[in-house]
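pasting for ref
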Amino acid sequence: MSDEAQLQAEERNRNRSRASKDPAHLAYMGRGWADRDASEAAGTAEVAPFAAARRDDIAARFPGKALVFYAGVSKQRSNDTDYRFRPHSAFSHLTGWGSKAVPGSVLVIEADAAGEIASEVLYVLPTAGHDSDEFFANPAIGEFWVGPRPDLAEVGQLLNIETRALAEFQEPSGALRVGTIGLQDPGAAADHFELVEAAAELRLIKDDWEIRELQQACDASAVGFGNILRELDRAKKHPRGERVVETAFFAAARELGNELGYDTIAASGDHANTLHWIVNDGPVLDGDLLLVDAGVEVDSLYTADITRTIPVSGKFTDVQRMIYEAVREAADAVFEIARPGVTYAQMHDEAMRVIATKAELWGLLPAGVTAEQSLESKEQWHRRWMVHGTGHMLGLDVHDCAAARRDTYQDAALEPGMVFTIEPGLYFHKEDLLVPEEFRGIGVRIEDDVLMTETGPVNLSAQLPRTAAEVEEWMATFSRR
């Protein structure tokens, strides 16, 4: 840490500790402490061999290079309070260290000329224990403040990697890096794009451990959606009912996982037509549809990303049902063609074929324009009501692998082990004068998390209902409890 950064850190923490510097007090505070219990980190984590294989893979792509992956540091929220720490996804993927990763940690991999790992070291900032004045005087690392953490030996055993104190770290000359500089001089160079791409592409195919974590995230998210239905009556009575919905899901995220994978969209009525509505301060009214786009991030940091649209009253109106089932038909059409060898573009085109057909059937396209003409035209008239893509990769990031090259992601064929979303929608803003009045204010999206296998797609979020009839029965089940 540079002298300037050290001074800034001390300034931020100076009002949080009033520890005396008197030698007698320091001696008193340092004695009379029992040895702490064995760390939770005892033993080697299940993820360790999977993470080791990932490190072998990334090293093979950069023979003769030193690769540095920074976990990053806590980000300031306000004054001397920070957001909950989350390590950089590339760091977490290559170490297997999730929600309990220590801020400031750094992974260094050095590959020999053949692309084999010559050395791999995880540098960690040790926590200040009872034998240090900082135990109670330093809010950043003192156990009195942050609680006990595994020591260097325990981290090494947990992740099955050589571990050293962060004070020993020096970035190798000519190293490629990913992630924030962490505790190093903030004036140091930025990420190396080639390594950023490779780290993202490494996550395109999920291993068995990752798939289990993503299924766990989907299962936890299903509990969160159940929480929403339990709280729906209260939401309808609250002036900011969307907040009731949001917090009902958040309870599952914190009880069953680490956090939300992203800010929850709890959008009732016309708010559903704002694609990234996260203000969530509106009422939840009978007669409206409620679109909820939410995902639990489990302790490994893998996240779900699921959307369900429900009728607040428990029953769809005829128009709502028609629009909802059109979206489901589009999603089902994508499921039907999704196979190894199919591209993202082909899946999107299949969803758009259904959307354009419905737009023609409902008389939404310009006079004389057919669905086929709309699909072929540069103007793409049907896309007025579905402007986003039909899916994206999913994993440690909700939009995973975003830094991958286009020819390895959007333009590439699906392969077994890929996990992605299927999420068509239709959005009719209340101000949209090109649609019938009864359509206005209705927004529908159905989003599922999908694993591609050798034989086709597996819906990881299939435990949640999808058809209009299933949704109504699901809601009735909760209303009877």
